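Before drawing any conclusions, I looked closely at one protein's amino acid sequence and its backbone structure tokens, quoted below without any editing.
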Amino acid sequence: MTTNTQIALYQGVEVEQAVYMAAFSQENGLQEIINQITQQAKAQAVELSGDINIKKNRTALSSLARTVASAKVSIDDTGKSLVEDAKAKIKIVDDNRKNVRDSLDALRDEIRKPVTEWEEAKKAEEAALEAEKALIKTLSQAIDENGNRKNSIQLREDFEKISQRIQSDNADIQAAAKDALNQLEQHIQAAEQYEAQQAEIARLEAEKAAREKAEYEAKIAAEAAEKAKREAEAKAQAERELAERAKIEAQMKAEAAEREKQAMQERMEVEKKAAAEAERMRIEAEQREIQEAEAKRAQDIEYKRQINREIYNVMISCEIEETAAKAFLLKLQNGEVPHLKICY
């Protein structure tokens, strides 16, 4: 940028300073300058076009691009400077506006302060009046804030609180208090009637409950007595049955013992007879054995005697003397003759 009237923005592109500065505040005001720079730069690029593989050509195009970038920075810096100046002026305007608002608002409030204070006091008075009316209305209700019915004592306490407000200097409060007292008188009368009814109902229910309790206890006592009687009778019956069973069992045991005794005696008698029979049979068997043994022995003796007689006769037939034959036969019987034995 130069100090002359004409400003060189790009090679071959110059513009008057006043026109240039005014263009920033106009819609699309810089478009003509952009068009001139574009036309000039593209024409120069065409002149420099050639084989891109040649370093000289690449360097020339890069230098031309940097020239375009420098023009952009120069124009943008000018616009930025104008924006900063404009912002500073706008801030001054805003500060003056704020000073005017604050000062005149304070002056307005100062001038109106008596009116404002009167209005606020009036609002507070009206709010207190409305709160008092609301309290009187609440106290005059038969239902409390929890939705429960007030009793006559609570209603009379509320009646006393409202009565203190009947002397108020405010006519509205006096009127509200009078209306509330009239309502409370009705509520108190209704509450007392209701409480009397409830007391009577409670008395009747208590009498009924006491009567039912007495009847229930009498019933329980009668049932207990009947149960005790049944249990006593059942116990006595059980004892009788137990005694009868014990008697029967004792009798059965005695009979069983008697039968066992008789059976034992019968078994002993049978065993005794069996033992006697066995002894008799044993004796008979022994006697038979003895007889059989004696018979066999006698038979053996006779058999041996017959054998001996035959041997003796043979010896006699051989002309052996009788004495010698008897002596030899005796030795033969006793096994005293070597290599010779009688086979009976």
In short: The chain has a mean pLDDT of 84. The chain has six helices and two strands. The radius of gyration is 80 Å.
